[in-house]
Automatic annotation (TrEMBL):
Species: Hydrogenothermus marinus
Biological process according to GO: DNA recombination; DNA repair; SOS response
Domain of life, source organism: Bacteria
The keyword GTP-binding is assigned to this record: no
Entry keyword set: ATP-binding, Coiled coil, DNA damage, DNA repair, Nucleotide-binding
InterPro entries: DNA_recomb/repair_RecN, P-loop_NTPase
Name under which the protein is recorded: DNA repair protein RecN
């Protein structure tokens, strides 16, 4: 419910904090004090245009809210105009207007002389009728099947439309798989080929280097091995005289053996050379490089790509068998969908007549004794709510053919119809606001309206009705009563809002009854309050 309205500045409402309660909350005040400014301030937070150029701030605090936007049951929305720029806030953080509206959807409804948007919403009549008929669970069941049906319909359409594209893709993939399979790529092959290619390309230089090394190490006169042998021979004379000489002697003997081993390794190199082998390696590397460039990947990626292409080819080939399966499933789903839609339509048509009678009976008590209300159920294409189009037709006077309610009803009539629909509906928003719904009525009708508004407010412990009224019959049944007044301070008009109880409330009811406050009017007010 809406717990706090916090207004820092909104026209001549300044630094006002209103704490509301569950049940029926009424705002009253003399004509001209700006009672509807409270509603304007609330609508301001929801995007209503504001022509004043001054800085403005309004905040609404909701409690006991459970939706994706609430935090620990709290939901706070606010709007600020500063330096001619408008800002919206959700739980203290900047937000868009669309997010704000989504956050309060199904939480807050506003009905006034000129704000009956819900009655103009094409879905609203359908929701009212379904709530009245208690078929919301059945509609949800239908919606699940409808969602599945639309998904199958989309899948079938996409598969059928892409048949030519599928065949083209199959041709391309077949060519690519054939190309990669023909290449017979092995992991690590390219690295081995590059090493072999480098070896064969430099074989003459390698021969020369090998020959030079063998000659220098062992073959030439004065070779390294020969010189090393001379050094070893000289040191052998003193091997046992000094530990360092002994170590050096041993290392040199080892070195001599290593030199011989190196020589034999070099001498064992096979310099068989084939121009044909070099050519084939070069061709193979060119092929691998071309494929890597073409498919923008490396050797390992080409191997993986071949596997992926084979998998994709299998999927594309399976699609041919998927289309008949999808068609069959779609037909079965359509049958279920139509069965539930027919059931929903039948209930709607039956309950529509009951709803019409109930609404008309309520409207008769609200000074619309000749009103005709018709819930029109027309068959249409399948949609998210079934295969029905629901609309409200209305006529306030005899001899006038009922027309769409948004085209024929006045603001006051719309307000009364809204009240009745809320009363007969089994589901409603947590907080419902009416702005002077009682305009143009009085006497016995006012008593009936007060009774209906009170019943609406008491329908659930979670319900809250906020009402701007000029009727004492309505004000006396309120759970909480607020008085709006205005005064002039330093040449400036300032509005005040305060909760009135006991004697203050008796005086306000007395003023509403007779326009004057005296002992007689106060006594009358007291009697009405005690009677509620």
């Amino acid at each position: 419910m809406l717990k706090i309205i916090n207004i820092k500045k909104f026209l001549y409402l300044e630094n006002i904090q209103i704490e509301l309660d569950r049940g029926l909350n009424v705002f009253t005040g003399e004509t001209g004090v700006g009672k509807s400014l409270i509603i304007d301030a609330i609508e301001f937070t929801l995007g209503k245009k504001f022509k004043d150029n001054t800085d403005t701030f309004v905040e609404l605090v909701f409690e006991n809210i459970e939706n994706e936007y609430s935090e620990d049951g709290m939901l706070i929305i606010a709007r600020q105009i500063k330096n001619n720029k408008s800002y919206y806030f959700l739980n203290g953080r900047r937000a868009t207007l669309s997010t704000i509206k989504e956050a309060v959807n199904n939480i807050l409804e506003i009905h006034g002389q000129h704000t009956q948007q819900m009655l103009f919403d094409k879905i609203y009549p359908l929701k009212v009728l379904d709530s009245f008929a208690n078929i919301e669970d059945l509609v949800k069941e239908y919606q699940k099947i409808y969602k599945k049906y639309k998904s199958l319909e989309k899948a079938e359409k996409e598969l059928s439309q892409k048949q030519s594209d599928r065949l083209k893709e199959i041709d391309i993939i077949n060519f690519q798989i054939e190309e990669l399979e023909k290449a017979e790529i092995q992991e690590g092959e390219k690295e081995n080929l590059e090493k072999r290619y480098e070896y064969l390309s430099n074989i003459e230089d390698l021969k020369n280097a090998t020959q030079f090394s063998k000659y220098t190490l062992l073959e030439e006169e004065g070779s390294i091995e020969e010189k090393l042998s001379s050094v070893i021979k000289e040191l052998s004379k003193f091997e046992d005289t000094n530990e360092n000489i002994k170590n050096a002697y041993k290392l040199l003997e080892d070195a001599k053996e290593y030199i011989k081993e190196a020589y034999y390794n070099l001498d064992s190199i096979d310099f068989d050379y084939s121009e044909e082998e070099l050519y084939h390696i070069e061709e193979r590397l060119n092929l691998l490089n071309r494929l890597e460039l073409k498919y923008n990947t490396d050797e390992k990626g080409l191997i993986t790509l071949k596997k992926q292409l084979k998998k994709r080819l299998a999927e594309l080939n399976n699609i041919e068998f998927e289309i008949p399966k999808i068609k069959k499933e779609k037909q079965q789903t359509y049958k279920k969908l139509n069965e539930i839609a027919e059931k929903i339509s039948k209930i709607r048509k039956e309950k529509a007549k009951q709803l019409d009678n109930l609404v008309e009976n309520h409207l008769k008590e609200l000074a619309l004794k000749d009103a005709k209300f018709i819930t029109k159920v027309e068959e249409t294409d399948f949609n998210s709510y079934g295969k029905d189009k629901i609309s409200f037709l209305f006529s306030a006077n005899q001899g006038i053919k009922p027309s769409p309610i948004n085209e024929t009803a006045s603001g006051g009539e719309l307000s009364r119809v809204s009240l009745v629909l809320k009363l007969v509906s089994n589901k409603s928003s947590n907080t419902i606001i009416f702005d002077e719904i009682d305009t143009g009525i009085g006497g016995k009708t006012a008593i009936y309206m007060a009774d209906k508004i009170k019943k609406l407010a008491d329908k659930s412990k979670d319900y809250q009705v906020i009402l701007i009224t000029h009727l004492p019959q309505i004000a006396v049944v309120a759970d909480t009563h607020y008085l709006i007044d205005k005064k002039s301070l330093n040449g400036k008009t300032i509005a005040t809002v305060k909760k009135v109880e006991n004697e203050e409330r008796e005086k306000e009811i007395a003023r509403m009854l007779s326009g004057i406050i005296n002992e007689k009017s106060i006594q009358h007010a007291r009697e009405l309050l005690n009677r509620k």
